[in-house]
């Protein structure tokens, strides 16, 4: 791939893409938490490495159904194997959550802990629905340093909205190297 622009693709093109492994297809299309899938795949515990976290005032956002006075929690994390010095980054995720729509225990846990959001919701038995809104193939860019790749190495990604009681709680984009999870 020589272009630096992301390439968006449809669900059918993922399922039919012979260059993707079955596990890559599962990661891109699942409507469940990827943390447990990564633990099953690697046979290792997965930990969160929080790269960034900030509370922002937002501009009105149609996808998240927000207004100018709403606050968003912006997070960027790496899901890594928890194997001591042999730890490695598996997946990058960036998220935007509408803070006031999250239950108070979730707000506290997101701000104060390094627990993956999917596991927090599972523990709190929060009923959610995920709607995948985009799939992409794009260059690594600034994420290359976390995966030990070049900036032009391809990543696979997906973005999805998370709903609770028919309102969007937030949006998450997950990215992983196209050369990962091949077997």
Provide a compact summary of the structure.
23% of the residues lie in helices and 38% in strands. It is an alpha+beta fold and 183 residues long.
Strand order of the largest sheet: 1-5-6-7-4-3-2
Overall, the morphology is globular
Mean pLDDT value: 86
Roughly how many Å apart are the termini? 22 Å
* Count of alpha and pi helical runs: 6
The total beta strand count reads 7
Which sheet architecture does the biggest sheet show?
Answer: 7 strands, antiparallel
| Helix and strand pattern | EHHHEEEHHEHEE
What fraction of residues sit in β-strands?
A: 35-45%
| Rounded Rg | 16 Å
Judged by helices, strands and strand pairing, the structural class is alpha+beta
Helix content: 10-25%
Q: Unreliable stretches, pLDDT < 50, 5 or more residues?
A: none
Your description of this structure?
A hairpin with a 7-residue loop joins β3 and β4. The two termini are 22 Å apart. The chain has a seven-stranded antiparallel beta sheet with strand order 1-5-6-7-4-3-2. 23% of the residues lie in helices and 38% in strands. It is built from six helices and seven strands, in the order βαααβββααβαββ. The model has no long low-confidence stretch (mean pLDDT 86).
